[in-house]
From TrEMBL:
Protein name: DUF4169 family protein
Compositional bias annotation for Basic and acidic residues: 33-61
Compositional bias (Polar residues): 1-10
Chain positions covered by the region annotation Disordered: 1-61
Species, as recorded: Sagittula salina
Highest taxon above the source species: Bacteria
């Protein structure tokens, strides 16, 4: 016996798999992961705070 398959579900799963693979390819080609972005931002914020802590006079803006 052949397995009965719902064609609508099958089409949706195939479309999702295609979008997922395209998204993974774009992420590898173009950018950083969310964790890498947040780590870079945290390091930048820490460096800014350290620099601000070394000021002789507070910023008057």
């Amino acid at each position: 016996m052949a397995k009965i398959v719902n064609l609508t579900t099958f089409r949706k799963q195939k479309a999702r798999a295609g979008k997922r693979s395209a998204g993974d390819a774009n992420a590898a080609k173009h950018g950083q992961s969310k964790a890498e972005k947040s780590l870079a931002k945290a390091r930048l914020d820490k460096a800014d705070k350290a620099l601000e802590g070394h000021r002789k006079e507070p910023d008057t803006e």
